[in-house]
Design brief:
Layout (H helix, E strand, L loop, with lengths): L4 H12 L8 E4 L3 H8 L10 E4 L2 H9 L13 E6 L3 E2 L5 E2 L6 H10 E9 L12 E5 L4 H10 L3 E4 L10 E6 L6 H9 L4 E4 L1 E2 L6 E6 L2 E4 L1
Parallel strand pairs: 1-2, 1-3, 3-6, 6-12
Antiparallel strand pairs: 4-5, 5-11, 7-9, 7-10, 8-9, 12-13
Helix pairs in contact: 1-2
The structure holds ribulose-5-phosphate.
The site of ribulose-5-phosphate (5RP) has 17 residues, from helix 2 and helix 4.
Length: about 220
C-alpha cells in the first residue's frame, strides 16, 4: 500500500516512542515529523519530567499538550533526543536545518545520550548534498561566508526573510556532493561568522527510524 509522506513520518514517530523512558527529560526537535511525534505524546505527559525543545514552534506545541518545556541550562544531559532530518545517509549522518533550527538542534544532539532520528524514506540518500546544506551565519558575515563557501565548491543562496530563533540568517548551499561529511563539517565550522552548519556527522544519529510503505526500518 502506498502511503503519503506524512503517514510515513507518523509511522517513524510512533516507532520512536519506545525510546522514551519514564522520568526522563526528552529532547524534541522541529519540523513536520516532530510535530507528528508531539501530537502522539499525550500518554507520556505525566511520566516524562519534561522536554527541551529546539524551537519556539515546538515549545508552543508541547505546552499546548501540557508537557513542561524546560531550559537546557537547568537539566543534566538529555536522556533521549528525537528529531527529523532533511537527508540521511547509511552511516546515519544527516543534513538538518530545513526548518532553520539547526543550531539548537546541534546543541540538543550534543547534550543527548541517545539521538533518535525519524524520517520518511524520501530522505534517504547514499551521498549527502542533494538537499541544499543550511548554514546559520551572523548577519554581517553573510556575503563573506558565501564567498568562502564558493571556495569549498558550494553555491550559497541567502534564505531571504528567514531569521532564526537566535536572530541570525541562513545560507542554503547548493551543488555539494558531500563525500566526506566530517571533513566538510569541520571546514565550514571554522569559517568566521558561521554559527552552525547543518551537517550532523561528528555527532550522527544513534538510531535512524525510516517510515516506508512496508512499515518502519531501523538503521
Ligand atoms: C529543522 C530540521 C528538520 O528536522 C528537518 O527540516 C526535517 O523537517 P520535516 O520533518 O518537516 O521533513 O532540521 O531545522
Amino acid at each position: 500500500m502506498a502511503l503519503s509522506a506524512q503517514e510515513k513520518k507518523l509511522r517513524a514517530a510512533e516507532a520512536a516512542l519506545r525510546f522514551i523512558e519514564s522520568g526522563s527529560v526528552l529532547g524534541v526537535g522541529t519540523g513536520s515529523t516532530v510535530n507528528a511525534l508531539i501530537d502522539i505524546l499525550g500518554p507520556w505527559k505525566n511520566s516524562v519530567r519534561g522536554a527541551v525543545s529546539s524551537s519556539e514552534a515546538s515549545s508552543t506545541r508541547l505546552r499546548t499538550l501540557g508537557i513542561p518545556v524546560l531550559d537546557l541550562n537547568e537539566v543534566d544531559d538529555l536522556d533521549v533526543y528525537i528529531d527529523g532530518a532533511d537527508e540521511a545517509n547509511p552511516s546515519r549522518e544527516l543534513i538538518k536545518g530545513g526548518g532553520a533550527a539547526l543550531t539548537r538542534e546541534k546543541i540538543l544532539a550534543a547534550a543527548a545520550r541517545r539521538f533518535i532520528c525519524i524520517v520518511d524514506d524520501s530522505k534517504l540518500v547514499n551521498v549527502l548534498g542533494r538537499f541544499p546544506l543550511p548554514v546559520e551565519v551572523i548577519p554581517m558575515a553573510r556575503a563573506y561566508v558565501s564567498r568562502e563557501l564558493a571556495r569549498l565548491g558550494g553555491r550559497a543562496a541567502w534564505r531571504h526573510g528567514t531569521v532564526t530563533d537566535n536572530g541570525n540568517h541562513i545560507l542554503d548551499v547548493h551543488d555539494l556532493a558531500i563525500t566526506e561529511p566530517r571533513v566538510l563539517e569541520n571546514a565550514i565550522n571554522q569559517l568566521a561568522g558561521v554559527v552552525t552548519v547543518g551537517l550532523f556527522a561528528a555527532r550522527p544519529a544513534d538510531v535512524l527510524i525510516v517510515g516506508t510503505d512496508e512499515g518502519v526500518r531501523t538503521v
